[in-house]
Design goal:
- By secondary structure, the chain is mostly helical.
- It contains five helices and no strands.
- The chain starts with 9 loop residues before the first helix and ends in a 6-residue tail after the last helix.
Length: 118
Amino acid sequence: MADLKYIHSAELRKNWSNYPITYQMGNIGSEVSRSLKWTAKGNTERAATAIDRALELFDFTISANCNNRPRLRELLIAREEFCDYFFGNNSWHTDPKKMQKYYDGFVMMAQLHPKLAE
């Protein structure tokens, strides 16, 4: 079996579960934003790398929150919607502006309440 190749550093992977959910989701949101931006500009290479980074952060976040069923459910739905938008036929009818707004809320919460752990 081949070794997994990670995009993010070993230090970030090791510490990811210690970060507040607002931080985790805000970072996913940054990659979602980049994915949307580069897709709109037609830069498929940069869009693909941003999508890959977003998916890796989704996976880290899902793993870190697997014992919180309501949160896990929301994370899995968010990842599915993201994948459907970029790889599927957009059966969720996702509006990119609304998707960005969802993640922006986490960024704002993290900025307003930096010590908020939950």
